[in-house]
Amino acid sequence: MSAANPVSRKAANSARNVAIVGAGVAGLAAAEALTRDGANVILLERRAHVGGRAYSYLHPALGEVVDSQHVLVGCCSNLIDLTNRAGLADRIRWYDRQTWLEPANTARGPQATIIQIGSLPAPLHYAASFLRAPMLSLADKLAIARGLMEFRCGAQGHDGAAALDQESVGQWYARTGQTGRAIHHLWEPLVLATLNDSSDNCSMKYAGKVFYELFLSNRSGGRLGIPTVPLSDFYSAVAARIAAQGGRIEMRAGVDSLAQQADGRWMLRSADRDFLADDVILALPFEQTQRLLSSMSLAGSAGEEPRSELLATMTRFAHSPYISVLLWFDREITDLDHAWLLDSPLHWFFHKSRIRGYPAGSGSYVEVVISGSRADLPKSREELLATALSELARFFPEAARARVVKSGVLKEARATFTLPPGEDAARLAQTTAIPGLYLAGDWTATGWPSTMEGACRSGRLAAGAVTGNPARFLSPDRPPTGLSRWLAKSAG
Fold first, then answer.
1. Farthest CA pair distance, the chain
2. Total structural domains within the chain
3. Fewer Cβ atoms within 10 Å of its own Cβ: the N or the C terminal residue of the chain?
C-alpha cells in the first residue's frame, strides 16, 4: 500500500485496502476484525509501541518497564473476545473478590470490607457481602438498595436513557437520597474508576450502565481482570494476530496529512513514506483527529460541509486526567493484590509485583492511582510522592517501615474522554458523510463510557461500517441471568 508502489483499485468483489491510523485499542480492534474478514489492512502508529494510552515503556531513569494500570471487567464482552482471539486468556488474572480499605484512625487500624460474588443468582449475588460490609451503615445500605432499584430492569433506569443523560450523577445522588457514606464509600469510587471524573461532571446514563453491568445484570459482570504483563506486551499479542492474518503494521509511522484523490482513494503522508488506501479509519484521540481533519485535502467541495460539522462538534469535547505513582519498596508491604482506597486522595492500589508473579523476596512494586485528577495535575513529582507515601502508611503500616528503592510518577493529562450530562448526543458515529473516511476511538458513539471496552467497540463498529454493516463484528453484551433475566423480560 506504499505510494511508491501504489495498489491498483480493487474490483468491486475484491478485498478493499484499508489504512488504520493509530494502534491503540480502537485501531487494533478494527485491524483485527478487518484482517479476519480478508481485507488488506495497514496499521500506522507514530510510536514504537502499540496500545495507545494503554501502553508501557522502558523508563530510562528507572531502568524499569512502566505503565498506568488498566483493567478489564467481566461485562467487557468485546475486549474479552478480542484478547481471547489473541491468545491472552492466560495473561489476565481474574478476581471475584475485591477489598475496600478504610485507613487507620486513632481508634483502630485499617478496616477492610470484602465485596465478593456469593451463591445467590443475579441480581442478588453481592447481597451477602453488602449486608456484612462494615464500611457502610444500615442507612447507607438502604440508600444503595434504593438507588439500584432504578436499574433492576436494565441499565436505562425507569426514566429511559435520554432522560438519564440530562442528569448528573450528583443530581441522582440527591434525587435518590444517597447518604454521605454511600457516596464516598461506594458510588464515588466506582464513578472515578470507570468514568474518571467527578460525579457532578458525569452523565447518569453511563454511570447507570456501569452500576447495572457491574452489580445487577449477571454474576460475571463485576469480575475484575488485571493483565499480568506490561500493557504494550499485552497488546502486542493482538498486533501479532493482525500480522498473522495478513495485516501490515508500520511503527514510527505517524500520519502528517491526509488527502482524498480524484478517484476517491486516500493518500496518507508520513515523514518518509506515503500510503494509498481505499478507506481510512482514524483511530485516534479526538484532538489528533481534529488536527488531521483540519488539514485534510478533499477532492471536491462536497466534503467541506461534513468536515466543518465534524470539527464544530469536536470543539466541545474535553479530557479528564489520570495520575499513577509507582513505588518500589525493599520488602512486601501487604499480601493484597489490589484494593480500593477510601477516605483518601488516592483511589486505587495495585500490587504489581504480586499480580505479575515476581519472585518471593523481590519486595513490593506498587501503583497508586489518582483518578479525575485535575487539581493534582499541576503538583510536582515530590508533592505527589509525599502524598502517596503518607497515605500508603495509613493503609499499610509496613509501608512506613519499608525503604523506597525507586519511584516514578506518570501523568496522563488526556487519559479519558469526559461525558458530562447532555454530551452523549454529540458523540460522533463511526461512519462519516465523507466517503471512505471512518472514525474510531472511545470518544465516538459506542454506547459505553470512555474505557478500553468502549475503544474496542468503536474499532469493531468502524470495521463493520467499512463493510456496510456496522454491527457485523460486535460481540453482544452479556445477557442478564438469574432473576435479572426475568426482570428484564417483564420490563420488555
1. 76
2. 3
3. C
**195, 210 Cβ separation under 8 angstroms:** yes
Place of cell 462536497: 302
Residue 454 to residues 393, 446, 451, Cα–Cα distance (Å): 35, 6, 5
| Same-domain pairing of 143 and 189 | yes
Instruction: Of 282, 233, 324, give the one whose Cα is nearest residue 441.
Output: 282
Say which DSSP state 297 is in: B
For residues 309 and 424, membership in a common domain is answered with yes
Helix residue spans in 165-285 (DSSP H): 169-175, 180-182, 188-195, 204-211, 231-244
Residue 231: all three cell numbers together: 500493557
Domain boundary among 392, 417, 442: 417
pTM (2 d.p.): 0.94
Q: Are residues 342 and 382 in the same domain?
A: yes
In the numeric block, which cell numbers belong to residue 20?
488504520
Residues 389 and 311 in one domain: no
Cell numbers linked to 201: 461532571
What sign has the CA pseudo-torsion 316, 322, 323, 324?
negative
The C-alpha cell at 459 is 474499532
- pLDDT tens digits for 325-364? 999 999 999 999 999 999 999 999 999 999 999 998 999 9
Angstrom distance (rounded) from CA 190 to CA 186 = 6
First to last CA, the chain: 49
Q: What is the DSSP letter of 185?
A: I
Cα 435 to Cα 3, 213, 286, 432, 460: the distances in Å are 20, 36, 20, 7, 18
CB 122 within 8 A of CB 482: yes
pLDDT digits (tens, 9 = 90+) for 293-332: 999 999 989 999 999 999 999 999 999 999 999 999 999 9
Domain that holds residue 266: 17-54+230-315+420-467
Distance CA 303, CA 300 (A): 7
Give the CA radius of gyration of the chain.
Answer: 23
| Residue 100 near residue 342, CB atoms below 8 Å | yes
